[in-house]
Amino acid sequence: MPPAPPSGARQIWRRLRGRPAALTGGVVIVLLVLIAAGAPLLAAIEGQDTTSYHPGLVDSASGGVPLGHFGGISGSHWLGVEPGTGRDLFARLVYGARVSLGVAIGATILQVLIGVAFGLAAGLGSRWVDSLLSRVTDVFVVMPALILAIALLAVVPGSFPRPVLLTLVLGFLAWGGFAKIVRAQVLTQKSLDYVAASRLAGSSPWRTARRELLPALVAPVLTYAAITLPTNIVSEAGLSFLGIGVTPPTPSWGQMLSSATTWYQADSSYVLLPAVLLFVTVLAFTVFADGIRTALDPRAASRLRVGTRAGRRGAGTADSAATPADAASGIPGPADPRGGGAA
Amino acid sequence: MTTPLVEVAGLRIEFPTDGGSVRAVDGLDFTLGAGRALGLVGESGSGKSATAYALLGLHRGTGARVSGTVRVAGTDVLAADDAELRRLRGGAAAMVFQDPLSALDPYYAIGDQIAEVYRVHHRVSKSAARARAVEVLDRVGIADAARRSRSRPHEFSGGMRQRALIAMALACEPRLLIADEPTTALDVTVQAQILDLLHELRAETGMALLLVTHDLGVVAGSVDDILVMRDGTAVERGPVASVLDAPAAAYTRALLTAVPRLDGPVPAAADTDVEAETETDVEADGEPENAAAALSGSAEDTPAVAAGARAPSFVKDQPSPARGAGRVPAADDGALLVAEGLRREFGRGRHAFTAVDDVSLTVRAGETLGVVGESGSGKTTLGRMLVRLLDPTAGRVHYRGRDIAALGEKALRPLRRELQMVFQDPVSSLNPRRSIGESIADPLRAEGRLTDAAVVARVKDLLDRVGLDPDWYHRYPHEFSGGQRQRVGIARALAPEPKLIVCDEPVSALDVTTQAQVVALLGELQRDLGLALVFIAHDLAVVRQVSDRVAVMRGGRIVESGTVDEVYDAPQDPYTKGLLAAVPVLDPAEAAGRRESRRALRDVMVTAH
Amino acid sequence: MTGLPAFLVRRFLQAVLVLLVLAAVLYAVFYIAPGDAARLACGPKCSTAQVAQIRGQMGLDDPVYLQFWHFLQGIVTGHTYSTGTGSLHCPAPCLGQSYRTGELVTHLIAEKLPATASLALGAMVLWLVIGVGTGLLSALRRGGITERLLTGFTLVGVATPVFITGILLLLVFCSWLQWLPYPSYVSLTDDPQQWAWNLLLPWLALALVEAAKYARLTRSSMLETLAEDHIRTFRAYGVGEGAVVRRHALRGALTPVIALSALDLGTMFGGALLTETLFGIPGLGQQLVQSVQLKDLPVVVGIVLVMGLAVVLANAVADVLYALADRRVVLA
């Protein structure tokens, strides 16, 4: 018998290893993060930057379509140049990765922090605190977050750095799912016997929470974060696509797509670059999140058991009225669609 | 010679798992003649349910590998095409499942579900099928069957659902009925009714019965032959009377010995025989003396208990208005914990219900108080109030003379260590993310008196004390079996050197042999440490085995209480009488006799439902 | 059924609360934000005096909470605006008038709603057919090449944001293959055929993304239902696989699907912002994006409230559908 905890890091790694798709997703994610982190270096190697105009590389007669094949690909402009301005696309894409990933990761972290705080307070607090916080959470779950984000983004002065603003807006509006999951998990845990045993052991509530409850939150929060992250990438891209998020000259994939829509008939490679990158990124995160979910899901392991249930269930099932009936309720599904709808 | 109805030869069933595959059944042969009844008995993991499923080809399409020969009513199950298999299923052989709620479609009326099955096998009109459904529902004892056939499953009680499932099985007049743990999810009184029903139906229709169960008591009165399984193979087989009376295999003997008897510690001639053998048998499992000691009862071996406990010190729970005021016992009459007028309500407004209603009891130092009741009787709630895991809505709990019912959490904390609990579910009572050593060490660390090394040393002592290897300190709960986990739970309860342990169904999730070992361990610990135990269980036989005094609960109240001998040998309350009459016994002849007496009692008995 | 009315009341109160919070937040945000609504309404050529006069007429001199209160009052009782030369009556659910054009917000919304509804309803039909179809197929044909293909398709669909699908569709069908004209919205009442023809690509763009989500949900829900004990019962009684699926699995499996469609329809009714912008469909979403950029507060608040209402209503409907399908709820 291996002396490892059932949901320890090693266990997760073992389960992930058996899923090539998830691993590929993970590798792609690592590559993307490296690209984003090393954007200045990569641009320097190419010898370009994100803001310099190259009017000589676009055909001013046709309105600015890049000269040359495939959007002006050349030895000095590896992926061609932007129509109209002649800005280097490779540099804009790698810097854009910084913004897209940075905003998504930042927003996810914010959502986790706020959601966990609310969920914990609701789950551990008194009945009164719980119902108050749950109502607040409900409002944020039902709130059409993207629509509100649009309104908020519109009124903040342009001098405020847009990526930071996007992070804050997404983070502060869409944490409801995390709060619900954490609260449900805390309530389930609270009704478990080992938490009762911890009370009987004379532990203080804080000690019980730290030792018994908090470790149990890691897996569900991690899983939900893995699912939420690609959603945040798409939200950022969508807002920037609408011209409300990141605005030029700062590059982000959504912003590039936005300006590409006016060019797609004349210069389709300009559209395809950010589109493909965005697609690959979201796909990688989705596949990876699926893998994480299966790796962390305790049911996945037991699903294979057939036919041999040991059942002595007659005893004291209705007797255990001591456990709160609503403990397991209110866990939003992993594909919880609320709040993400600005399609 | 006629071909038997069921012929199984060289049956092997393998389930694929993460790490290779698990062989659930490994070379099993048996036959079942038309009209006969065979009991397939074994503990969890013995492969008995997998075998039952194989008779209907239910492993098809699940990924399980089945090989060997399975012939049922002339159909070669493993070779049959889908159409042949469908004709067999429900037509020639029908199955009754363990959990009758999930086994029925929640969206459809029960009558419609039976009619649907009937029409699969008979070309009749919808209304004719519906009429047949009402007919069989009536036959299985559903009152007002025509009306009730329009109800959906959740509107039925557990026992009625199981009757409905049996009705579905009856609909097509099968020649074989396969019942997979048909009464495991039911209370003992309902279990008796269902078993009686199966018995009557068999006598009436002449169908054969394959009864799959873990409970030897269930087969004793219900089958002709018995097949004991262990780890996927047959250990012993033969007529039920001879196997139960004179088991040949050591495993069967151990199994029989482990079954708690309702007649409890009273030494009967037959019992002493078995126990004498057991000592050597159970030795393989590592605890010879314990098992024997506990099985032979506590009366002789436990002077400390015998002295104080046999006196009827129990506060009789008769609804007399004067009682509430009196009987706060002085500290010197041995009372450790006295509960008075305990009451607990859940929910508010219209949804409010009273789980425990005006319960008073006394636990003396060093004695065991058994609390027995069916599901919903409030026994768990009561147990949790005694250790103050739940706050009573009303009433007092005097612990060593001090009322702790209303103490705040902080004020309670110093007392916590003296009142411990052993939980029912060996899975949820241990944190899967912490090593068992750390779980046991928890109370010691919370107290903060001992150094780290001293804590570890003490935990290792405790592990040793409950029969576990001290070197398992750093192992995690998932590496242990149910019985071992329960031992860890007991060690954790012992760690702070408590005066009283409330055991809430401590053995009900365990197999019968493990159950006997854990019960023995508890008895031994109590003797050595002078603990007081409150032993809560639904199993009357187990309670008799361990208790000095016993309280019978029903609907949140104590309906009867007294010493075990008083309550078990001369029950006063009709509910207690009904409960006792419903408990299955191991002697087939006696089982038949009890079936008759149950029939007589039926008018008097009021079931819990 | 005793629980349902209480549930509905609670849900209604919650919906009102959410909408109030939404409106209040918007008011506060726009109030704090720089920019002068009166100058906006008057136009760049107005004199300072004129702006001040308009500010008075619009009630912009009042404190923000009073403005908000008047706004709420207008929703319940209606409002009459003086326009300097005369007066303009705004009937009961009055959401104010546009700073920019003076048009009543309710009129504007009524004008934009048909396009949004056309897009949402058509797309939903498509995504339900495609999504539920592939989901069921891949759940029932397990282990084959079909399942692998369908799983791949849904994964790609889920990972493709709608604006990318939209651009690709435009690129392929309008630019490269030139099978379809670049879409421009035609009203259903004007020319039904042109209406459908022009909405085909927007519908597809929306539906492909949604269909992938529905396929995944349908598949997992179906597999879960098929693993339930009562399915085993009917198999064990010789009921054919087709009948088991049709009679005993489908209903349970599709309950979450139907609840989710209610939810999504609400969101779409709130305006498929990206799709409308990309394809130039004159719906609520496009209007919202424009008004936000113009800082036309009454229009923004009005549209956001209508969108919020759609989402909140859809949430309630989804919950009710779940409650109705819940096996423990007994319908009288």
Automatic annotation (TrEMBL), chain A:
Transmembrane residue ranges: 21-45, 99-124, 136-158, 164-182, 213-233, 270-289
Compositionally biased region (Low complexity): 307-337
Pfam families, per the entry: BPD_transp_1, OppC_N
Region (Disordered) location: 307-343
InterPro entries assigned to the protein according to its UniProt record, in alphabetical order: BP-dependent_transpt_permease, MetI-like, MetI-like_sf, OppC_N
The ABC transmembrane type-1 domain, residue ranges: 97-289
Membrane-topology descriptor: Multi-pass membrane protein
Keyword flag Disulfide bond: no
PANTHER family, alphabetized: D,D-DIPEPTIDE TRANSPORT SYSTEM PERMEASE PROTEIN DDPC-RELATED, OLIGOPEPTIDE TRANSPORT SYSTEM PERMEASE PROTEIN APPC
Keywords in alphabetical order: Cell membrane, Membrane, Transmembrane, Transmembrane helix, Transport
Protein name: ABC transporter permease
Protein family: Belongs to the binding-protein-dependent transport system permease family.
Subcellular location(s) per record: Cell membrane
From TrEMBL, chain B:
Family according to the record: Belongs to the ABC transporter superfamily.
Keywords associated with the record: ATP-binding, Nucleotide-binding, Transport
Bias-annotated ranges (Acidic residues): 272-288
InterPro entries per the UniProt record, alphabetical: AAA+_ATPase, ABC_transp_ATP-bind, ABC_transporter-like_ATP-bd, ABC_transporter-like_CS, Oligopep_ABC_C, P-loop_NTPase
Domain ABC transporter: 6-256, 337-580
Organism this protein belongs to: Actinacidiphila acidipaludis
Protein name as catalogued: ABC transporter ATP-binding protein
Record-level Gene Ontology MF annotations: ATP binding
Domain of life: Bacteria
Positions of region (Disordered): 266-328
UniProtKB/TrEMBL annotation, chain C:
Transmembrane segment boundaries: 12-33, 119-140, 152-179, 195-212, 257-279, 299-325
Recorded topology in the membrane: Multi-pass membrane protein
Subcellular location: Cell membrane
UniProt keyword list: Cell membrane, Membrane, Transmembrane, Transmembrane helix, Transport
ABC transmembrane type-1 domain boundaries: 113-322
InterPro entries documented for this protein: BPD_transp_1_N, MetI-like, MetI-like_sf
Keyword Cell membrane found: yes
Chief location bin: membrane
Any one Pfam family match given in the protein's UniProt record, by short name: BPD_transp_1
Keyword Ligase among record annotations: no
Family of this protein: Belongs to the binding-protein-dependent transport system permease family.
Protein name (database record): ABC transporter permease
The organism of origin for this protein: Actinacidiphila acidipaludis
